[in-house]
Amino acid sequence: MIWAQLAPDLVALLCCVVAAVTDLRTRTIPNWLTLGGLGVGLILNTALSAALGAGWLAGLLSALGGGLLLLIVFGVLGLVNFVGMGDVKLLAAVGVCVRWPLTLWVLAYVAFAGGVIAILYALLRGRLGAVFQNLGRLGRRAIRGRKEDEPEVELHRIPYAVAILCGSLWAVLARYLPALRLP
After folding, report:
1. C-alpha distances in angstroms, 130 versus 111, 123, 155, 177?
2. Can you tell me the mean pLDDT for 53-71?
3. Among candidate residues 79, 69, 80, 87, the one with its CA nearest the CA of residue 23
4. In a 3-state reduction of DSSP, which class is residue 151?
């Protein structure tokens, strides 16, 4: 029974490892990886759910629910250029693999890991002050709108696939080791 959860979880983590390495090297995440992860996750979860007697539809819906949640949440962030579209597709693949409801934890852990990594990245590059200034500008702009003479906010890019790997690994490990879960 545990292998039915573990196999798709390992596919998700393998996709994340390859994506993190690729993102660090080239600042891109290949479509063959994200689309392949989506396909394997859907097929694996559907087949394993059917084999365990839960019905293929339950596995398919659980996988689609997980993928759609992460696609929608991070898709919005991708549309406003907070993350790249490769990151969005990777998270959709992770969601399909780990399924609903674990995707809620993936969402939380990836966001937390992304924040920590962004702060460390800015600190190591001597850009922490600029990052906080930009956050202030974005906050003011969200409240009152952008003034014509106001400069564009410079986004500081990080290889977000590393955060996706860290958050996904944390969520998957917490599934099997409850002591790792946040309260």
Report:
1. 21, 10, 10, 39
2. 95
3. 87
4. coil
**pTM (two decimals):** 0.88
The letter for the amino acid at 144 is R
- The secondary structure of residue 80, as a DSSP letter, is T
Q: What is the CA radius of gyration of the chain?
A: 18
90 pLDDT more than 80? yes
Q: pLDDT class for 144, splitting at 50, 70, 90?
A: confident
N-terminal to C-terminal alpha carbon distance within the chain: 26
- 3-state helix, strand, coil split of the chain in percent (to 5) is 80, 0, 20
Closest to 99 in 3D by CA, of 36, 178, 175, 181? 175
